[in-house]
Design a protein that fits this description.
Length: about 350
C-alpha cells in the first residue's frame, strides 16, 4: 500500500472521530430503550447507524412501523451518518453497535475494521457527474473533481479511471464530504464529482443539465455493489444473541420492503422527514432480494464471490494490501441460521 494513500485514509478516519462523538451526543433518535420486549422483559438497546436515504434507512423505517424491534426484544437508538467510513469509525468508538454502509466502504471490513452481519441490497445509485458541456472523463482532465474518499462514489471513480486508461493525477482531485460536494457542484466551484443518488437529485436542483458520465451499471458484468449492515470485528462471537436478533429484524423488514414497496417508500419518507416523491425516485436504484434468496446466495458462496471481486478492485486501488477469504469478515452461517422476526 502506498504511503500517501494510507496516510490519507487514516487522516480521513481520524478526523471523523470528533464528528462522530458529537453526532452520537446530539443527533441520536431514541425509539425507546425501555420498551418491553416480546417476552415481557425490558428490551435491549441497540444503537443503529444509518444513512439518510432510501437504501440506507428503509429497513429501519419498516422495523419501526411493523413493530419488529419489540418483537425481537430490541429497542433501537438511531444515529445518522453521511458515509460508510464514518459509520465504521463509530463502531470502533462504541457509538454504534451496527451500521449500514454502501459497497465503497467494504474495504474496511476486508481490512479487519468491521464484520458483515447482513446484505441489504445491490446498488446502482453511484454516478460520475460533470457540468454541462463535459461529455467524457477525458474532458475533465486537468479540472477540479470532488470525491468522497473511501465511499462507493470513490470506488466507481477508480473503475472509471481504469476503463478510460486515466489516473487520479490527470485531475485536480479534492476529497470532500458528500453534502459539501453538492453545494460546490451547484455553485460551479467544481467541474465533476463522484457521487450517488439521492444527493445527485439535490445537485440537479442547482444544475439541472448536469451530465452523468458513469454509473454502477457500466461495470455490472465485472462487479456487484452490495450495501450491508456491519458491526465491530468479532462482535457476533461475543454477542451472538444480539447479532441474531438484529438479523431477524433485518430479514423480516427486508421481505416486507420487497412485498410492500409503496408502503415502504411512505414509511421511509416519514422516518427521514422527506417527501414520498423523493423516496420513490431513490427506490429505483437498488436491486432487492428476498431473505430466502440472500440465504441461498450466502450458502452457495455467491456473496463471497462478490466480496472477493470487490477486494481485488480495492487492492488495485491500494485501499487494502491483500485479498482475504471473505469468510473472515462475513459469517454467512450466522445470516442463514437467523430466523425472521
Amino acid at each position: 500500500m502506498s504511503t500517501s494513500f494510507s496516510r490519507r485514509n487514516v487522516l480521513q478516519l481520524s478526523l471523523g472521530a470528533a464528528a462522530i462523538s458529537l453526532l452520537a451526543a446530539c443527533s441520536a433518535k431514541d425509539d425507546g430503550a425501555k420498551a418491553a420486549g416480546a417476552a415481557g422483559k425490558e428490551a435491549v438497546e441497540i444503537k443503529v447507524g444509518y444513512i439518510a436515504d432510501y437504501n440506507g434507512a428503509a429497513l429501519m423505517a419498516v422495523a419501526d412501523q411493523e413493530g419488529l424491534w419489540a418483537k425481537a426484544g430490541l429497542a433501537p437508538k438511531y444515529l445518522p451518518f453521511t458515509n460508510g467510513p464514518l459509520a465504521i469509525q463509530a463502531l470502533g468508538t462504541n457509538n454504534v453497535d451496527v451500521a449500514y454502509i454502501g459497497s465503497g466502504a467494504l474495504w474496511l471490513p476486508a481490512s479487519g475494521k468491521a464484520e458483515i452481519w447482513a446484505v441489504n441490497s445491490v446498488s446502482n445509485a453511484d454516478r460520475i457527474i460533470a457540468q454541462a458541456g463535459i461529455n467524457s472523463l477525458a474532458d475533465l482532465k486537468g479540472k477540479k473533481l470532488a470525491v468522497p474518499t473511501g465511499t462507493s462514489g470513490d470506488q466507481l471513480f477508480t473503475l472509471a479511471l481504469e476503463k478510460e486508461g486515466l489516473t487520479r493525477d490527470d485531475f485536480e482531485v479534492t476529497a470532500m464530504e458528500p453534502p459539501a460536494i453538492v453545494a460546490a457542484f451547484a455553485a460551479g466551484q467544481i467541474d465533476g464529482a463522484a457521487l450517488w443518488y439521492p444527493l445527485i437529485d439535490s445537485a440537479k436542483k442547482g444544475k439541472p443539465d448536469l451530465v452523468e458520465l458513469f454509473s454502477n451499471e457500466d461495470f455490472i458484468d465485472q462487479f456487484t455493489f452490495p450495501s450491508t449492515f456491519v458491526a465491530g470485528p468479532g462482535r457476533a462471537a461475543k454477542d451472538k444473541e444480539l447479532a441474531t436478533s438484529f438479523i431477524s429484524v433485518i430479514k423480516a423488514a427486508n421481505d416486507y420492503r420487497l412485498a410492500n414497496q409503496e408502503t415502504t417508500i411512505s414509511a421511509t419518507a416519514t422516518f427521514l422527514k422527506l417527501k414520498d416523491a423523493d423516496m420513490a425516485s431513490q427506490a429505483s436504484v437498488a436491486k432487492l432480494f428476498t431473505s430466502k434468496e440472500l440465504e441461498g446466495l450466502s450458502a452457495e458462496g455467491t456473496i463471497d464471490t462478490w466480496l472477493t471481486a470487490l477486494q481485488e478492485q480495492f487492492k488495485a486501488a491500494e485501499k487494502i494490501p491483500v485479498v482475504v477469504d471473505p469468510k473472515t469478515f462475513y459469517n454467512s452461517e450466522l445470516y442463514v441460521s437467523a430466523p425472521a422476526a
